[in-house]
Amino acid sequence: MSKFKLLASASIAAAFATQAFAASDVLPSQDSTFSEWGEESGWTIYVDEGRGSCLIERKDENANVVQMGLTKDHEFGYLGVFTQNAEVKNRKKPIVLSLDGNLYSADAKPKTKNLADGYVGGYFLTNNPGFVDDVMKKYEMIVFPEDSYAFTVSLDGTLKAIEAARKCNMEQIG
Fold this sequence. Notes:
Layout: H1 2-8, E1 13-15, H2 23-26, E2 34-40, E3 43-48, E4 53-59, E5 65-70, E6 77-83, E7 93-99, E8 102-109, E9 120-126, H3 129-137, E10 140-145, E11 151-154, H4 158-173
Parallel strand pairs: 1-9
Antiparallel strand pairs: 1-8, 2-3, 3-4, 4-5, 5-6, 6-9, 7-8, 7-10, 10-11
């Protein structure tokens, strides 16, 4: 569970939806309790005991860490991307993600504190089914931060991992 500790204390947020949200509603708190539910296609599935929901996490071959889960109210999904291969300045800025040419943009308010080993990144909040479908069915995502060069993140195995996380979420509901 050491990879997860990298992300558990992060508090970066970006919104694909037009509604505002508080970082505390999106991100697990430092006091959250997590248990490993299983693994699927190279992704580890965790149960966030405080939220009663599941999330998936994986480190790709370029040492990028990706995490996906649900907000506290289960109305939105989030995708977190963390890397050592970008610079992030501490101000609100636009960011663009490309999934096989389909572009998604958001405003990101980066935070570089509390991330292990020089990682920077952010969480992207969405309720867009097209985005979720693209994440599940595409093999890589290109991240275009405003302050840094673009970098590619592998999405290998997301289809089966998200399906397993959905099963895990159903178990948490009862």
